[in-house]
Amino acid sequence: MFIQTEETPNPATLKFLPGRDVIAAGTADFPNREAAARSPLATRLFEVSDVAAVFLGADFVTVTKSPDVDWQVLKPAVLGAIMEHFTSGDPVIREAVGPAHASGDGDNEEIVSQIVELLDTRVRPAVAMDGGDIVFHGFESGIVYLHMQGACSGCPSSTVTLKMGIENLLRHYVPEVQEVQAVP
User: Fold this and answer.
1) How far from 55 is each of 19, 22, 87, 119, CA to CA, in Å?
2) CA 16, CA 171: separation in Å to the nearest integer?
3) CA–CA separation, 10 vs 95, rounded Å?
4) Cα distance between residue 13 and residue 127, in whole Å
5) Which residues pair with 59 in a beta bridge?
């Protein structure tokens, strides 16, 4: 098995491409060891010292490291853990991945539908290329709330992505949108 790696805009995060499907649908975010219980792959990765977060996409695994370790030291252990997992035959995830976005808001259902459509067709594919995801969290009083995952979470350029990219796109197509904010 040959696993490729790609740098992401977040220097603390690397994207690992195992050359096969990782999750059939959706994404899964494991911001800490405790959250990884439902994923044998994420659990195995958290057993590697200095792994701080794991994010699973359709065909990639994004790993975020602790700030005090160098990728040159950590990368071989992460590659080994991913390879071990895929050769073990264990499932990547034990339960189905839930919906990516928060459910629609009854009063703003049409606006929310437009926002989610734009996120799914124009934004999420682009951020997936960088090893992350952006998930709709809510819309209230002209403000769109988004949750950043994977390489996008904690990325130095995430504020620019939100304000200059996503906010401008949403404001252009959905006049009711006034601002975009990240939620933890």
Assistant:
1) 16, 11, 20, 19
2) 34
3) 29
4) 13
5) none
Mark out the alpha helices in 15-136 (DSSP H runs): 40-46, 71-88, 109-118, 124-129
CB atoms within 10 A of CB 56: 25
Tens-digit pLDDT string for the chain (184 aa): 799 999 999 999 999 999 999 998 888 999 999 999 999 999 999 999 999 999 999 999 999 999 999 999 999 999 999 999 999 989 999 876 555 555 555 567 889 999 999 998 888 888 888 888 888 989 999 999 998 888 888 777 777 778 788 999 999 999 999 999 988 8
What is the rounded end-to-end Cα distance, in angstroms, of the chain? 36
**Closest to 43 in 3D by CA, of 81, 6, 89:** 81
Q: Which long-range contacts does 154-162 make (Cβ < 8 Å, 24+ apart)?
A: 154/10, 154/12, 154/64, 155/8, 155/9, 155/10, 155/13, 156/9, 156/10, 156/11, 157/9, 157/10, 158/10, 158/182, 161/127
Phi, psi (deg, nearest 5) at residue 96 = -60, 145
The full set of domains in the chain, from first to last, is 4-88 (3.30.1370.70), 106-183 (3.30.300.130)
